[in-house]
Amino acid sequence: MESKNNWKAWLYLAPVIILLAVFTFYPIINTLFVSFLKNYDYIDFSHEGFTFDNYIAVLTPYSKFGGGTGTMYEQVMKTALPNTLILTVITVPLSIILSLAIAIALNSIKVLKKFFQTVFFMPYVTNAIAIGMVFTVIFSTDYGIFNSMFGLKGTPWIFPSPDHPENSVKYANALFAICFYIIWHSLPYKILIFLGGLQNIDAQYYDAAKIDSAPKWKTALKITVPLLSPQILYMLITSSIGAFKEYNSVIGMFGSEGGSFDINSGPRNMSTMVFFIYKQVAKNKVHYACAASIFLFLIILLFTLIQNQVSKKRVHY
Amino acid sequence: MKKEKAVYPYAADTSEYVLALAGSEQSTATKQKVSNVWHIIQLVFTYLFLAVLGLVVIFPFYWMIITSLKTGDEIQALVQTFYPHIVRWENYTEAFQRLDFGTLLRNTLIVGIISTIGTIITTILAAYAFARLNFKGRDVMFMLLLGSMMIPGEMMVISNYISVSRLGWTSNSNIVGNFAAMIIPFWVSIFYIYLLRQNFKQIPNELYLAAKVDGKSDWEFLWKVMVPLAMPTLTTIFILKLMGAWNSYVWPNLIASGNSKIYLITNGLRETFSAADNVNDYGAQMAATVIVTVPLLLLFVFFRKYIMRGVGRAGIKG
């Protein structure tokens, strides 16, 4: 009877296990494998033996691939990696603070609560590429509402004006525009999670605060935030991982080339690690893509471990 | 305010007690008044805060719709207008034609529906095994699945691309293969298995025993009792998965590699309106983004509860 049941259960699981084996577990090993192959070609599977060259080319300037612009090193260590790190460091804390504030505000009102909840959830049900294009129009150099609203006529944020192509986009401006978009897009999910957490907080704590007639902001800081710390940690980890993999927002706003900025103002375009990886796949340079993705995975792993360690002291369960 | 007093009759007493201890020179009545005023100010600021941010959140939607109805002249006006003075519906006809909307919609629906149905079947089977059946290695297997959620999908995308091109599924002439490549790798979702397993676990064991007494097999019990009871969760999965297909860009873009016949809606949108600051194109471009966004908003209007519950569930384990 037992063994028969065993056999049946595995039959139920078979489709999932087969699909996972083919499309999840095998690819992980294969990616690691290909990252050490020289000049791998996925069309005829030819390669020229094992090598560390892919990692050397991607991570170090000391390679036989030459220096200067356009090298793998230039694309990854000078552009994609800094972009990815900067985007993460800016958007993750800002979006968490903002969504926490909104969630606390939403939780404290009664009238119009449902209405506001729906409004703040709307960016979730959008197409990242479509809304990215809308933001491109909003931040348009000559006719964008952002420039005309704040009296910044002619400031290029995403693309230079067609009439003044020499007035190229400053990196900081492009960064502002894309961070604005990423934060806008990431609010709903975080607000929803924080609201869920807030509703689980025992009302006793707030009654106690009310008796002490503590002001609202103090209640929020001393009671709500510590009690929400598990959700905040969860958000911190998952949204950092998400930010490390930023891609659609770049494609949506800057197009499939990732834009082109004033070289003296920072990285030359908005390409991210994932952007670089997919670009290499499309160019049949998957060995570089694999090396870069293993590198990205290690960064994410390291980052998650550090956050976990730090939070052990600060999270109240 | 009224409600608070009704619910906490003792709270008022206590606050007086505290005030007496503090030895304040103000009377309790003045204190109460000050606290009321303070409360109202806080409330006003809360609403102001929400209203301002709400406007920021809504604005891109508003601007998208407004721009999609403007004429080229009005878009390029020196002073931006906040509603179209001349409504130009032609932007939409132009957008529909340039997008090749019929093909995009058909492709997206084929991929969305078949991958959703596949996912639902594998999810039901696996969730049932994890929730109901006792077998060796169940917990280990479940932890392994959850653990694999931590690995960034990008690592698999490259290898999966190699795999499907090895099968000849990426060749431009192999339309069926192209669709298979866009569908089959997405027939499994660990998060949904987790979601449905939780739901199945809540179904009382007595139902199972009763079904056994009636001579029903495990298989019949699953499809005749469990699945109908888990309909709300399955609806959530269905909607979220469809939205996923509608929004997917990376993988279909790799598979299509420039072959517009098999583009999904998002690829079509991006490729039709290539990113350049072409102001003359803004009207049609925004009309196209409205066309892509509206079905999502409609889904949201009709299935708000299901969508928010499914999305919110992710954080509960935190």
Can you describe this structure?
The complex is a heterodimer of chains A (317) and B (318). Chain A is mainly alpha-helical. Chain A has helices spanning 2-34, 53-59, 72-108, 113-121, 128-138, 145-149, 171-199, 203-211, 216-227, 229-244, 248-254, 273-282, 286-314. Chain A has two domains: 1-33, no CATH class; 68-314, MetI-like fold, CATH 1.10.3720.10. The longest helix of chain A has 37 residues, at 72-108. Chain A is globular and about 75 Å long. Chain A starts with a helix and ends with a helix. The mean pLDDT of chain A is 86. By secondary structure, chain B is mainly α. Mean pLDDT of chain B is 84; it is low at 1-16. Chain B has two domains: 2-68, no CATH class; 98-313, Orthogonal Bundle (MetI-like fold). Chain B starts with a helix and ends in a 5-residue tail after the last helix. Chain B has helices at 2-7, 9-22, 28-68, 72-75, 90-99, 101-132, 138-148, 153-166, 175-183, 190-202, 205-213, 218-229, 231-247, 250-256, 265-272, 282-313. The longest helix of chain B is centred in the N-terminal third of the chain and has 41 residues, at 28-68. At the A-B interface, helix 1, helix 3, helix 4, helix 5 and helix 6 of A face helix 2, helix 3, helix 6, helix 7 and helix 8 of B.
Descriptors:
A: 317 residues, mainly alpha, MetI-like fold, B: 318 residues
Task: Provide a concise account of the structure shown.
The complex is a heterodimer of chains A (317) and B (318). Chain A is an all-alpha fold and 317 residues long.
Secondary-structure topology with pairs:
The complex is a heterodimer of chains A (317) and B (318).
Chain A: H1 2-34, H2 53-59, H3 72-108, H4 113-121, H5 128-138, H6 145-149, H7 171-199, H8 203-211, H9 216-227, H10 229-244, H11 248-254, H12 273-282, H13 286-314
Helix pairs in contact in A: 2-3, 2-13, 3-7, 3-10, 3-12, 5-11, 10-13, 12-13
Chain B: H1 2-7, H2 9-22, H3 28-68, H4 72-75, H5 90-99, H6 101-132, H7 138-148, H8 153-166, H9 175-183, H10 190-202, H11 205-213, H12 218-229, H13 231-247, H14 250-256, H15 265-272, H16 282-313
Helix pairs in contact in B: 3-16, 5-16, 6-10, 6-13, 13-16
